[in-house]
Amino acid sequence: MRFLTACLLLACSFSQAQPSPPPQQPYQASAPLSWELKNARWFDGRQIQRGNLYVENGVFVAKKPAKVNRKMDLRGQQVLINPLAEAHNHNLQTAWGWGQYADRYVDDGVFYAAMLCGDPAGVAEVKPLAAGAAAPEVSFVTACITSSDGYPLAAVLPEPNPEAAAAQKQIVLVDSPEQARQQWPAIKARGGTWLRLVIAHSERPELRQQLANFGRLGLTPETAAELTRLAHVDGRRVVAHVETAADFDAALAAGVDAIAHLPGYANTLDEAPEVFALSEAAAARAARQHTAVITTTAATALFRLDGPALTALREVQRANLARLQTAGVPLLLGSDVFIGTARAELHALDELGMDRATLLRLATQDTPRALFPGRRLGCFEPGCEASFLLLGGDPLADLGQVDMPLLRVKQGRLLTRLADVAASSAQATTSTADAPKKTGAKKKSGGKAKPQAKAKRR
């Protein structure tokens, strides 16, 4: 949600500069369909597999259903992938944002998302919308905690100052471990299974004395550790926003479950690139603690850095990603691009040189499973949820194929903007259990044809 106002202005200016497209119908979902996908190719997390796939009652099954609503022979040309997931955004956590961007998620093939700083009242309006069959599925964080001079107050307040910060209700403000314990009942009352903590420039306490930095800082390491302890005692999980490598270390010391932002995604204080470089020890600790890291490298483009500054940050990002991958740290795909989706992060990581198979696995398997644990997502085996995208070609060879889904299916339902197609999809059925039609036997040379019986009058 960094510089939310700026992002909204950017979105508005972009829309004003472009010709207005014709209004589109919202996505609708068909009834659950039975599918037979012959000669299919699909990405299994490592490579492309081949064979026949079958869907019944919203899941993949081992055998051909008795009745098939949609039979497709893919002839080994198109490729199926599971839908993408977005682990870090804020554009679906209000009713306004939902109206602007929900169909964009389906367009982009992003069926799963995490919104990391919603107000409980605003999220309550959105949850019924997110429950629709044609809607992206969303995990909401409704307890977003920072210091009384911390981020994102500078982004969400018209005039960021201590008085305005104290009066707002969207962000919880905590300045000490003692305050954390005092406010814990109110934090619990905001609901949700995750908390979001903000740790920003924790290694530079002198910044708190500078008015220019008001609303851009965050929790002290001690306060973050106490909030994490309280959350874990209560069975909740914690994701921490970080800026620098020192913040990353503080989040690990606190014991958080996930870290939002690869250090080096932004450089708002114009610091040396080394400030964002992760150590091997930090990467090893993150792996040992199973702390997931949400990448958000696409968000760097929002800051419009000049050539040398951008190049320096990208080099730090490459090094940090390589160090985390070498250590075995779980990575999650997230963009934090308010006017976009995970597809922006997919291409940003591709430009940084991440291996295509690894990248697609993060987008279609690791991230959805992290957002919705306990469900069988991101797979094509029997029992897996039958949600997939049909692409025109192999995304391992051409990642641009992900940008042009030919078909979107969610739990066996066809997603389409054409209401008549959604309504009629289940009407025409083909039975694969019917006995094959017998062809007439050839007459023997010189034989007499058997007279046909007269048709009975009905």
UniProtKB/TrEMBL annotation:
Keyword Signal: yes
Pfam families: Amidohydro_1
Signal peptide start and end residues: 1-17
Region entry Disordered, spans: 422-458
Biased composition (Low complexity): 422-434
Keywords on record: Signal
Composition bias, Basic residues: 439-458
PANTHER family referenced in this protein's UniProt entry, alphabetically: ALPHA-D-RIBOSE 1-METHYLPHOSPHONATE 5-TRIPHOSPHATE DIPHOSPHATASE
Name listed for the protein in its UniProt record: Amidohydrolase family protein
